[in-house]
Specification:
The chain is mainly alpha-helical. The protein is built from 23 helices and 12 strands. A hairpin with a 3-residue loop joins strand 6 and strand 7. Helix 2 packs across helix 12. It binds one RNA strand of 75 nucleotides through helix 5, strand 5, strand 7, strand 8 and helix 7.
Length: 522
RNA sequence: GGCGCUAUCGUCUAGGGGUUAGGACGGAAGAUUCUCAAUCUUCAAACCCGGGUUCGAUUCCCGGUAGCGCUACCA
């Protein structure tokens, strides 16, 4: 409809398109990683490919189970699924095998220089570092002798040093990329404890898993030259690369749990009441565009529209407010809409409005139950249409429909002055409520009869309809801003309505005796 | 420091040698309504700077600036 269907040649379907999402379990699943996963997933689904999930857990020092759980929690919530799953730590033999193959070809060498502590970035990073002196030139015999003697070493890639030597690849997003080999250092393949580095493990697995397209964050763009070297060194054809612009904080800095707090964690969005489809929709619009003016898109529309050509090259700001830094645990309690990017919230509201009553009420129920209100599904179903256009996040149900959940006498306290209608006074409020009580005692609790009876009563008393409705609204809802009155009364039922009007009348009488002056008595 | 990537309203973006530079969120004002919300209308708001190419650059090229990334036996 919006885009021409993608032509599929018979040949095309034979191409094994395989993408991978390879998070390292060293922190929580953050929004940037989620977006990378989503883009990979969309690309695969658009083209009929396979999605591989691979835990890049070679950094034993920093891996945590909590992180693994966070990643799976977040991915499961997204509800997109994946086709194959691997753990990098279980594939060490493969990594070493490929490292050895590269070494045997003479494309890597042992570096016996003791590991230097990475902390001293000052001294080292200011100079152009290419390789540790002496190690590159070590003869194979000498190298073997020292290794056999038990000397520990790192294995380094022997980056070509011929003049004019270049490494190149074509990025699907950033285009032709060329770098002089003279600017690439002899990076490590194996650490001195024999463990593979990220570069080696990642490429070895990509080769073995036959990954055809690597779609990942732009922070890897410069690393890609090394990866091309590894692929070629291992005798494999490098896959197609596509680097994604980074998601950054409002101040332009990279997203960090420490600096920006829970707003960067995917589960925060889940807990705040985002719909996964809305969250996905939002993330897709950061750094990618369907090139038409669509904003709200369903999962299927995203699949149909997605292409690497639509990806932007500049970093995208995720415009959250940096107001909630410390307490991750208390966030849902405070959870102001204003914490999140306004477009994310708006999109969520759009998606909520697009849900059927059945669907929305089923999603709302656990939240209401979780807050300690044992509401029956049928009742939730009746309440849902009254709040569907009034909530932006699912959790808003707790504030938007609170008066439906509590018992008749458990309404949160409100100021009796709220009961006084526009251009009226306490006496009018009292009069109106008293009359309303009589009318409501004998009117059928359905929208139309309630509407007619209350309007008629207002007219008979010579007050405006609004002056009659407002006191009733405050009496039953406990506040001025609430869903439409008649629908609300219908769901609440006669018993609770009358009880709450009685309570309101009591409040008013209490006030009247306290302040005897009532200027308007008519 | 070295190498690289990027630059359109506050934010996400469309566009592209000649346009009133389009849309969306957010903001402001108004309409509607029993309040709120939703909806509708209107308004404010942008091509980083300097050169060049050109009849004409926001668009192409170069430089500057700024931001970001990489520069680890982290990923």
């Amino acid at each position: 409809m919006f885009l021409e269907p993608k032509p599929r040649s018979p040949l095309y379907s034979k191409v094994m398109l395989r993408v991978r999402f390879a998070p390292s379990p060293t922190g929580f699943l953050h929004v940037g990683s989620a977006r990378t996963f989503i883009f990979n997933w969309l690309y695969a689904r658009h083209n009929g490919g396979t999605v591989v999930l691979r835990l890049d857990d070679t950094d034993v020092e920093r891996n945590t189970d909590a992180s693994v759980n966070s990643i799976f929690d977040g991915l499961r919530w997204l509800d997109l699924g994946w086709d194959e799953e691997y753990k990098q730590s279980e594939r060490l033999a493969l990594h070493r095998q490929i490292a050895d193959a590269i070494f045997q070809k003479g494309l890597a060498y042992r570096d016996f220089t003791p590991a230097h502590t990475g902390d001293s970035e000052k001294s080292g990073a200011n100079q152009t570092w290419l390789f540790n002196p002496g190690m590159r030139e070590l003869s194979r015999a000498e190298s073997d002798r020292r290794a056999a003697a038990g000397e520990s070493f790192a294995l380094r890639f022997r980056v070509p040093r011929g003049t004019g030597e270049q490494v190149r690849f074509t990025d699907a997003v950033y285009g032709e990329q060329i770098k002089s080999a003279a600017d690439i250092e002899d990076f490590a393949l194996l650490r001195s404890d024999g463990m593979p580095t990220y570069h080696l493990a990642s490429c070895a697995d990509d080769i073995d898993l036959r990954i055809s397209h690597i779609i990942r964050g732009q922070d890897h763009l410069s690393n890609t030259y090394k990866h091309v070297l590894i692929f070629e060194g291992a005798g494999a054809k490098p896959p197609q690369f596509a680097h994604l612009p980074l998601l950054v904080a409002p101040d332009g800095s990279k997203l960090s749990k420490r600096r920006h707090g829970p707003v960067v964690s995917v589960t925060t969005y889940r807990d705040a009441g985002f719909l996964p489809e809305a969250f996905i929709n939002f993330l897709c619009l950061l750094g990618w565009s369907p090139k038409d003016d669509r904003e709200k898109m369903t999962r299927q529309e995203l699949i149909d529209a997605f292409s690497l050509e639509g990806i932007n090259r500049a970093n995208a700001v995720i415009n959250f407010k940096e107001n909630l830094k410390e307490p991750a645990a208390t966030l849902p309690a405070t959870s102001p809409d204003e914490t999140f990017d306004s477009k994310a919230v708006w999109l969520n509201a759009e998606h909520i409005r697009g849900l059927s009553i059945d669907d929305l009420s089923v999603r709302l129920l656990p939240i209401v139950h979780g807050a300690g209100f044992p509401i029956a599904p049928e009742k939730m179903h009746a309440i849902t249409p009254l709040i569907r256009e009034r909530i932006k996040l699912l959790r808003d149900v707790l504030t938007a429909a609170d008066f439906f959940f509590v018992d008749d006498d458990q309404l949160p306290p409100y100021d009796p002055a709220e009961l006084i209608p526009q251009k009226g006074d306490a006496a009018m409020a009292l009069k109106v409520l008293t009359r309303a009580r009589e009318v409501l005692a004998q009117t059928e609790f359905k929208h139309d009869p309630l509407d007619q009876a209350l309007r008629a009563a207002a007219q008979a008393m010579g007050v405006k309809a609004g002056q009659m409705f407002q006191p009733i609204r405050v009496a039953v809802c406990g506040r001025k801003n609430a869903p439409p009155l008649f629908e609300t009364l219908q769901v609440l039922g006669r018993e609770i309505t009358l009880a709450r009007i009685d309570q309101a009348i009591e409040k008013l009488e209490g006030c009247a005796s306290a302040s005897p002056k009532s200027p308007l008595s008519s």
